[in-house]
Amino acid sequence: MTVPNSRLLNLTQAQLKTWVVQAQIQSQRGQLPEYIPLLAQANPFWFAVQFQCIDGQVHQFGNITLLFPLMSVVKPFVLLFLLEQLGAEAVFSRVGIEPSDEPFNSLKQLQADQGLPRNPMLNSGAIALASLLPGENAHSRCESLCLWLNHHSNSQLFLDESMLSSVRSVANERNRAIATLLSQSGYLDDVELALDTYNHVCCLSGTIADLASLGMLLAQCQKPIRLEHCRTVNSLMTTCGLYQASRRFAVEVGLPTKSGVSGAMVSVVPSQGAIAYGTAQGAIACYSPPLDQEGNSVAGVFLLQQLAQVLNLKG
């Protein structure tokens, strides 16, 4: 498959190395998340990035064998899975498609919207969608998602039981309040099952290569996955993927991107003017634990800004 204007393919190792070094320096401005014990123990100097092009070219830098949890980066892929399994009508009867200026775990936003999650990239939306995953319990629901993702993206994701225990060790009253309001508003049936499922899927883990492979799932969108579903996910990543920073990032960078509090980020790099039609140059996956105030990887945001500005990667 040949994509016109595929500037990502023209990157040199020297260019990439320069930007990676600069991104690592920028990461020192960030902070580790403190509310999940294992995430708080991450080495702030850990760094891994993979550029993957549709012609098969791969560029990797940093600690490429590191294993890390996806956390909120899993949200677009939960959405894609459910769109494929249930269809858009069923999915968007439980969650909206509008951006939010509130934090990712905002109860205020959910209350203002009378219990309807604003979009699938917020905790409220992801918890509501977790309740739709097939399976009798949280473990089987997570396994169904994991198997599907591994099959279609050729990745090797797994459930990190240690990370799950760490997440469970701290009472997340905000997420519980969100789930309770969702239940009261009729958008989920079982609060405990939805929360446990959400915690499970956020603890799916892998390497930077696995994350890049997930990105390619949205970049290439090969059958049997429907093109319209990839387009929907990419659009929502563009408008909602970086929480309060989403609008600014969409203007400055313009790449469909999703972040997670582990420091993971994944982006789809569109062909010029072609992202709406499902063609792309490739995907970029980055992992660097220090976060900015909005909960996005400092190094990841910086790296994507440099790439987009220098190579004009916007769709």
TrEMBL record:
Gene3D superfamilies: DD-peptidase/beta-lactamase superfamily. Substrate binds at residues 72, 123, 175, 198, 243, 261. InterPro entries: Beta-lactam/transpept-like, Glutaminase. Keywords: Acetylation, Hydrolase. It is an enzyme of class 3 (hydrolase). Its EC number is 3.5.1.2. The keyword Acetylation applies. One of its GO terms (biological process) is L-glutamine catabolic process. Coiled coil: none annotated. The keyword ATP-binding does not apply. GO terms for molecular function: glutaminase activity. It comes from the Bacteria. It catalyses: L-glutamine + H2O = L-glutamate + NH4(+). HAMAP family: Glutaminase. Homotetramer. Belongs to the glutaminase family. This is Glutaminase. It comes from Symplocastrum torsivum CPER-KK1.
